[in-house]
Design goal:
Elements (H helix, E strand, L loop, with lengths): L1 H16 L1 E8 L9 E4 L5 E3 L5 E5 L4 E8 L6 E7 L4 E2 L2 E3 L8 H5 L4 H11 L1 H6 L3 E15 L4 E2 L2 E2 L13 E15 L4 E11 L22 E3 L3 E3 L10 E10 L5 E9 L8 E7 L4 E10 L8 E13 L4 E15 L2 E15 L12 E5 L8 H7 L6 H17 L2 H11 L6 H4 L1 E5 L4 E5 L7 E3 L3 E13 L6 E11 L4 E11 L7 E12 L8 H11 L6 E16 L2 E13 L33 E13 L3 E5 L2 E6 L5 E10 L8 E13 L5 E11 L11 E2 L25 E2 L2 E10 L17 E11 L5 E13 L2 E13 L2 E10 L3
Parallel strand pairs: 1-7, 1-8, 13-23, 23-34
Antiparallel strand pairs: 1-4, 2-3, 2-5, 5-6, 9-12, 9-22, 10-11, 12-13, 14-15, 16-17, 17-18, 18-19, 19-20, 20-21, 21-22, 24-25, 25-27, 26-27, 27-28, 28-29, 29-30, 30-31, 31-32, 32-33, 33-36, 34-35, 36-37, 37-38, 38-41, 39-40, 41-42, 42-43, 43-44, 44-45
């Protein structure tokens, strides 16, 4: 053990000493950040930090040629003879003298267009040169805030981890990640193994700096950068961009580099502004210096995102490959002003890796054992980009503060402030925490479940719950009670629950619940309580139909294998009809025909009180599900190529009236398809059938989700826009289909004047078929992303429906954030 420790110490010491380091500045001695530094004729190197400091690991003494490359500046090659380590080498870079050649000016065709066409024509050829590779990946994330508000929506925001100064400004997030990545072009595969991960001021050290997220590839037609943007070298790029050759220069290897300005044809298209640097004859990317607005990437709070990439020539495979990248952003919204940068670097490329069938699996990311537990000495030997003084100070301060903030004394003092009861607590709710012992008691507040319906009148709930965390990998339990009281029917309906979760990998979870509840006849619950409250009080329309259920229930769910989820439940219930007890409304009597009865269907009589047991067994299959393996959890990310399927069997038995027993199968299939530059397509298919048609209770029928609201506060794809609630139901068989395509800016963005509004066109179709009923169909066309500036949350749809020869139409208004 002592020998191993000594060996490790000597190895780390040697790697720290085997360095070339220094500072990079411009001619005015201003530090230059994000300069690429590498050995000549290799793709192994580093980048400078925000102070212009760099560290290049070299383990051989002797003569070397070190290259300093930075977009907008002349590339510098330094010949050095290293006799001892560490070796200091400071460099000054001059701005590049970009000139437009006379031959370019006299060319009839726009010379920039010629260059871009050549790049597009050679995309496959260039990317085939590194169709598969392994590499070392380093990423650093940094968020800074300025003049942070002390409160937001009445809630104290604290000190953001302890990194703020007296002006409430400073670093609020700092992280680093070192990983090994494996890539394959066809079929496209990606895999990442985290070697080391560190987050300032935290114990788990799990950052969200993923190499796949940083893989911003302009050679693709669609570039994923907050949103799917049109690449300036997409096959249809000339429909979105104009190009201008700003000038050209020769790099130190004698290659002619063309600087191309990107000029979007329409301001609000999902396109880039800025510059591309293209290598003449190779027709490859030499560098990118581009930006997009928050509106273009559908992140309204962001002012601007700035992307910079540097490519280097690899003699091994005669290719230009990405070696460094930075993403800078600024946010100014809701009183928050912060900016940040995610910088990353690639090194140790191997362009001829040997892959086997086990190389790529559905696990696209995993952490090496103890990756989050590396100490400072290890990081100093591993880190390719040196920390700035500010970052070093933040690590030291927060790491020491972390120990203090884990102590019982500190946690108790924080909880003392958090646990203070105020005047709004009885209405808004309150939580009393013990962070040291990891438990919390919560009171839900009167407003949380406050609503109105014609059965209960105004009703509200009081509830208490207790939560206990048992370990840091997802073992916990939660228990609570709640009592709902209706002021018109003068009924108290108490319920309870107990839930236990064993881990955050397969998430085995059991829940025991019971009590008395006013329950919707449609168990898919298409009507939100707030929607019904507004429609009842303002328009005298009581859409919500409920019955009384006294029940006991046990349920269990777990992901038994990646992408396969099982769920089951067993419930025994006594079900009673309920009747209206009030006709109160702000609207006058008789408005909209007045309130209707609580019976959901005029065709079926009010059901009689009954008792029944219900067993549900279901399975969900997420085909080809990709996932991320973190030390404390498994995070599933699905697979855009395939849909997910849910099947469920429901058996009702032991009823007080045997005719109410039934067996029914249901299934649904859904998928979100990323259509790249053409938006997003979503579909949802659902069907069901009873094994035997019987005269069952209404709440046990298969039912469609309708909507009779002009401004529904939900935006579910699986509901129909103009279908009356409870109009379509069956005890036989049925099927429904929903499809919707959001074209983003692909259509309206090309129409003059309209493109200035940055609206998104949405089209959809829905159909419903039930036994013994004529089909119901809807078509819709809508406008999304309506608003001004950063505030674009409104969506408007025009819907036209067809059923049994009757046509109907109407407008629906929705908040697009739902």
């Amino acid at each position: 053990m002592k020998k191993t420790t000594l060996y490790l110490f000597l190895l780390v010491s040697f790697s720290v000493l085997s360095q070339v380091k220094g500072r990079i500045t411009d001619t005015k001695k201003n530090p230059l950040s994000f300069v690429s530094v590498y050995l000549n004729k290799t793709v192994t190197g580093t980048t400078s930090n925000d102070n212009g400091d760099y560290v290049l690991n070299i383990n051989k003494k002797g003569k070397h040629i070190i290259v300093f490359q930075f977009l907008g500046y002349k590339t510098v090659k330094k010949k050095v003879n290293i006799t001892s380590f560490p070796f200091e080498l400071n460099v000054q870079l001059e701005q590049e003298d970009v000139q437009l050649a006379e031959i370019s000016i006299s060319t009839k065709d726009n010379p920039a267009n010629r260059i871009i066409r050549n790049v597009i024509a050679n995309k496959e050829k260039n990317t085939d040169k590194y169709a598969k590779y392994t590499a070392k990946f380093y990423s650093r994330g940094l968020y800074k805030i300025k003049d942070a508000p002390e409160k937001f929506l009445g809630q104290n925001l604290g000190d953001f981890g302890g990194g703020l100064d007296s002006t409430r400004s400073g670093i609020i997030y700092l992280s680093e990640t070192v990983s090994e990545i494996h890539f394959q072009k066809k079929p496209k595969k990606f895999k990442e193994k985290i070697i080391a991960s560190k987050v300032s001021g935290t114990d788990n050290g799990i950052s969200f700096n993923r190499a796949e997220d940083a893989n911003i590839n302009f050679y693709n037609n669609s570039v994923t950068f907050g949103n799917d943007l049109i690449s300036p070298i997409s096959t249809n790029a000339f429909s979105y961009y104009k190009y201008k050759l700003v000038g050209s220069f020769y790099n130190k290897n004698g290659k002619l580099i063309n600087k191309i300005k990107l000029i979007p044809k329409r301001k609000n298209d999902r396109v880039f502004n800025g510059y591309l640097y293209i290598v003449e004859d190779d027709w490859a990317i030499y560098g990118t210096d581009v930006s997009v607005t928050g509106a273009q990437v559908n992140i309204p709070m962001v002012d601007v995102l700035h992307l910079k990439q540097n490519y280097n020539y690899s003699a091994v495979n005669n290719a230009w490959v990405l070696i460094s990248q930075s993403i800078d952003f600024k946010v100014d919204a809701f009183g928050f002003k912060f900016d940040g940068r995610f910088s990353s670097g690639y090194s140790d490329y191997n362009f001829n890796p040997t892959y086997n069938e086990d190389t790529f699996t559905n696990e696209v990311l995993r952490f090496e054992k103890e990756a989050t537990e590396k100490d400072t000495v290890y990081w100093n030997s591993l880190r390719p980009v040196p920390l700035t003084l500010e970052e070093t100070t933040d690590y030291k301060f927060k790491d020491s503060l972390k120990l203090v903030r884990k102590s019982k004394k500190y946690l108790d003092s924080v909880n003392k402030k958090q646990n203070r009861f105020n005047l709004l607590s009885p209405i808004m709710g309150h939580t009393h925490r013990n962070s040291y012992e990891k438990w919390a008691v919560s009171y839900n507040g009167l407003i949380k479940d406050f609503n109105y319906n014609t059965v209960q009148g105004f009703n509200a709930s009081l509830g208490f719950s207790y939560f206990k965390e048992q370990n840091e990998i997802g073992k916990w339990w939660n228990a609570g009670v709640k009592a709902n009281y209706g002021f018109s029917d003068k009924r108290l309906r108490p319920t309870f629950f107990f839930t236990k979760n064993w881990n955050n990998i397969s998430r085995p979870r059991m829940t025991i619940s019971g009590g008395v509840a006013a329950t919707q006849f449609n168990d898919r619950e298409p009507i939100m309580k707030i929607n019904n409250t507004i429609s009842s009080l303002i328009r005298r329309l009581n859409y919500l139909k409920i019955y009384d259920k006294t029940f006991g229930k046990i349920s269990y769910s777990e992901e038994i294998k990646n992408g396969i989820y099982l769920s089951s439940s067993l419930e025994y219930a006594n079900r009673k009809p309920l009747f209206n007890t009030t006709d109160y409304s702000f609207a006058k009597q008789g408005h909209n025909g007045g309130y209707t009865s609580n019976n959901p269907s005029e065709v079926i009589d009010v059901f009689e009180e009954n008792e029944i047991a219900t067993l549900k067994v279901g399975a969900t299959f997420v085909f080809g599900q990709k996932y991320l393996s973190y030390p404390d959890r498994k995070e599933n990310i699905g697979n855009e190529k395939y849909p997910s399927l849910n099947i469920k069997y429901t058996k009702r038995f032991g009823a007080s009236n045997a005719e109410l027993n039934s067996d029914v199968f249901t299934a649904n299939l859904k998928q979100d398809i990323n259509a790249g530059n053409y938006g997003n397509l979503t579909y949802y298919l659902r069907g069901g059938m009873f094994l035997k048609k019987k005269n069952i209770a209404f709440m046990d029928y298969l039912q469609a989700n309708g909507n009779q609201l002009i401004f529904p506060l939900d935006g579910e794809l699986n509901s129909f826009g103009l279908l009356e609630y409870y109009k379509f139901y069956t005890n036989d068989k049925y099927a429904e289909a929903h499809i919707e395509h959001n074209f983003k800016g692909a259509v309206l963005g090309k129409i003059p004047l309209l493109n200035k509004l940055n609206f998104h066109l949405v089209g959809g179709a829905k159909t419903l078929v039930m036994a013994n009923k004529k089909p119901y169909t809807e078509y819709s066309v809508g406008i999304d992303n309506i608003g001004f500036g950063k505030w674009r949350f409104l969506r408007v749809d025009y819907v036209k429906s067809f059923h049994a020869g009757v046509k109907n139409n109407g407008l629906l208004f929705r908040l697009s954030l739902f």
